[in-house]
Each structure stands twice: as C-alpha cells, then as structure tokens.
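re the bet — no i am not wrong, look at it urself. input seq straight from the record:
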Amino acid sequence: MDLSAIQACLRAGIESRAIRVGPFLVAFDPHTDNPFRNYAIPDDGAEPTAEQVDRLLAAFAQRRRMPRLEYVGRPPAVESALAAAGFTADRRLPLMTADPADLVAPPVPAGVEFRAAESEEDLWRSAAVQNAAYGEAEPAGPDVDRLRRTIADGGGVALAVTADTGEGVGSGVYTSPQRGLAEIAAVGVLPGYRRRGIATAVSHRLTVAALDAGAAPFLQADGEPEQRMYARIGYRTLGELTLSTRHP
C-alpha cells in the first residue's frame, strides 16, 4: 500500500455524493455542517489557480459550510494556492496501515462484549456512541442512515456493549472497500468507559473484518497517544493526512 492508493480510496469513497469544482472533488452533507462531512479532496498533481480556489470557496459559501480540504501529504502547488486564499493547515494526522501477519489481538476488556452492529437497535446504539464520543448531538435518522449505507455498500459497524446492561459504550466502522482498501474510522468510546482498551479492541475487530472482506485496512490516528495505541495491535505509520481549513 502507498499514499497514492490511500488518496485514491478516499476520493472514491465520496464520488457518489460529490460535485466537481475544477481540480477538486467536493462532498457536502445536507443534514449537517460538521466539517468532517463537508470537505474537498484535490486531484493528484493538482495545480489550482486562484480562480479555481475562488470557485471552491463559492461552493462552500453557497451551502453555508466552512471551506475545508483533506489530502495526503503536502502537495506544494495545492498548499501554496490554499495559503494564498487564507487556508491554514490545521492538522497533520498520521496515516497508518497494518499487514495481516503483524496483527496482535488485544486483551478483551472485562465486562464488555463486542459484536457487529446489524440490527436497527444496534445501529442506533452505535450512532449514539459515536455522536457522544465526538461531542455531537443526540443521534437522528441521517446518522443511522449513514451507518446503514456503510453496511449496504460492503463495509461494517462494530459495537461494544456492557455485558450486564447491554449499554452501547464503543463503536466504529470500516468503510466499503474501494480499490482494494478500507478505512477504519469513527472509532469512539463513551467518556466514562475510556482507558479500558475498548477502542483498541473495536479497532482490532474492524481491522480483522476488513481483511476478511478482502480489503487492506488503513486509518488516521488522531494524535500520538492514538498512534501508539494502533501500533500495539500491529499498525505502522505510512505518511500523513493534512486537514486544511479557511476559518472565518
């Protein structure tokens, strides 16, 4: 796996709901202004002009969304054009991948059970966990619809529940395989259940499921602690994903 393959996978994952603006593929979510659901990805080798960036900004403004991009690495022409338009590279997230031979199964946290979320009830539990973990509102229909589409498109949703009450406490997804790759994403744990190994166990389960589906897994680590966590189950750092935003 190389970085260009990851970029191609990320681009393919939004094609069905994206519009094209010059050398940018742009995904908009009509149900939420969450910046992680509204963003652009530049083409490989893109050299955006000032006029094309202006058109990109207009597309975001028309939909009342914050202008934001995600791209692998640090393409000079893209970063130069964005900087000239007032964008800031907010974060550089480690991109990691795992080979099957390197996977290490983590300990199963006491009092927690894991399963694939497939029933309507479990999908709502998963949406509730993810929204709470990432500071969003109570789940609504569109949140569950996204998880349902993930499964319908060949991906999967994992759910961690308490063994005694069945309360959802952890969740995550692997995206529908694109070009032989699948992203492990949206791994979240309720605040009161963190630091028990639940996120690690969910990530490992999703990784195995993606491999079983014939896809090579990759993910974005949110920072150094997460990078170390994923390294413990066999992931290695391959490069970085840049998040670039034009703030008000």
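see?? The mean pLDDT is 96. told u. also Residues 198-212 form the longest helix (15 residues). so pay up
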